[in-house]
TrEMBL record:
It comes from the Bacteria. It comes from Streptomyces atratus. This is Helicase conserved C-terminal domain-containing protein. The keyword Nucleotide-binding applies. InterPro entries: Helicase_ATP-bd, Helicase_C-like, P-loop_NTPase, SNF2-like_sf, SNF2/RAD54-like_C, SNF2_N. It holds the Pfam family SNF2-rel_dom. One of its GO terms (molecular function) is hydrolase activity.
Amino acid sequence: MTQAGATEDGAPTGRAARELLTRAGLLLETARTVLADHTRAVDAVHTALKPLLDSLVRRELAAIPASRLKDVTEGRLRLGAVEQAGFTTVGQVHEANRYELRQIPGVGAQTADQVLAAAGQIAHAVRDTVAVRIDVDAPDDATTALVVALHRLVAAGPDVRRAVDAAGRLVGRLESLLAAAGPARGRLRMLFTGREARSRALEAVAEVRTAVAEAQGRELPLLFGQVSVDLLRAPESELAAWVDFELRSAEYYSLLAEMSGTGPDRDAAEGFLPSGMADRVRGLRLDDAHLRVSLRGYQSFGARFALAQKRVILGDEMGLGKTVQAIAALAHLSARGETHFLVVCPASVLINWAREIRARSTLRTLPVHGPERQSAFGEWRSGGGVALTTFDALHTLPAAADCGLRPGMLVVDEAHYVKNPATRRSQAVSGWTQHTERVLFLTGTPMENRVEEFRSLVRHLQPELAPSIHTTHGAAGSLAFRRAVAPAYLRRNQVDVLTELPALVQVDEWEEFSPGDLDAYREAVGAGHFMRMRRAAYARPGTSTKLNRLRELVAEAADNGLKVVVFSYFREVLHTVRQALESPVFGPLSGNLPAARRQRLIDDFGAVDGHAVLLSQVQAGGVGLNMQSASVVIICEPQIKPTMEHQAVARVHRMGQIRTVQVHRLLAADSVDERMLDILARKERLFDLYARRSDVAETTPDAVDVSDGALARRIVEEEQLRLATRTAGTAATTMPAAPTGTDGTARETVPES
């Protein structure tokens, strides 16, 4: 053995070993640091959470009569003397001490202990049922402390979980290895070490070298350092933490549920799967190395279910994030070496898939549709990534059997599109399912109501299971149906798993213009007409991609028995929507309807048993009307005044609403919609930081608005330049003159058409 060399098996010795072990020691210390920083951040949340939970528990216990203490001891406890002494509620007993109770005549040490123990058991049970809700309209010191503590973890992002998991494994591995490798730090120590210990030291050095190389390959030192910095970074101010909470409250509530242990019931979150199957799914560790988002518990389980069962239908109710669960499954397979994935979906959601995959993972996307789809398919076949194609394009591409590859996973969105095996789209999908090991079908339609349709989908996935599915399974109820078809089907409902979230989920639905849409849009841009640009996506209903997506959202809501409110600034757009829908439709509500008539329309809408649609101008629906019987909101175009949109949504999402409200904003890519959002997003954040916090802004939102007269002209000019339709010397728009308010900001007029 040389002083600075290596053994026969390549393990470094002498100086090389010392340098390696020093690097490993520094890596170990960095891993311990990130764990300690995370522990401090978590402890801060628990410290802030405790008084809030204690207050909720006290309130609940104060409403429980002391006589309920007998139930805990099956009637053996004698409470007469305690109640006569004024302890009439469980709360009063729980806050008393042993000495205080023993002062009551007739109460001995044993009775006092039993009474306190029974009260403690009830308090423990109550704590498991209470949940902290954060009220942005009534912040106090205790809630603010909680929001600030949560902000540190939320702002650090999904890298925290990856860093903590990796650091925990690395600490467990390196601590024992460095202890065993200690003698290898010096030649003399090795000389005076026994043969067996010397052999263990050399083996440990070799393993340390492997561990350090793997950590560097995964860039763990950089990850640990960044996460530690993020966990130590405080918000700029309490106000900034509150604003961040408003912008992404779902992430705060998800973390809060995890910290407080008040998440959804596990059986419900796992779709009431048989225990053996649920255990197997739980045992699969999800690799999130290529994921850019933190999953909620039920979402992680859904992704693991797809991976463990390999060929399944994910049928979660709309609004629960089926897309992100599919992306998580793809990201896991990518981390394990798979290179090619295929997503088939309706044309109306293809752009959403592209945006979601880019935003929530590091996976490469390739849209394979349109005139260039054959060359795009060839690029995917040679270079890998996630190919995104439509049902109508799939059958024009090379068949799975002919293209010489098997995707790591095939995802079929809106899978009910392939329920009829005789159709061309169904046959094209079937060709790929037969040549792909892992297949994930997504649908928000409750399958227990469509047993024959479900059986048709299962034939694509697990043909051997299809004959055992009978209509009696659906007739027995949703729970019985899910258990009978568990090997191929997972469905969770909002009411079961969104207990950790606020009652508002917002989704941006991005669409690409159809050729007809684009023609109408170009005409409006060429004319410099801002209002026509905003409604151009509905000018040609027969080819409107926004209108098509709106129909799909309404149909899915109908399948789930949900009521829908559709908002638009333009009565012309609402008329087009009404013509396109087959559902029971009420309205439109507009500013020129008398108040009594408007309320009668809303009452009639609410009285419908099950699904119905209410149409409303956004400015009419935003004032003095309550629409809480609805749980799905569709906004046809972005509003130039964000306050107007906020107020309209608030008509649905308000006290008395018992379901989670889903807000879907229909947006056209590369259009006035995208330009408006880019400009307004910057201004709205300033509005949130300052104006929304003032009493004046609360009572008169128009007093501090983010719109101005130049915004429309700026957008028109930018679009004219982009589309090269602007004529020389023409820069003015043909907007109607906009009256101004007392603050001088421009106000859009309501078009009569």
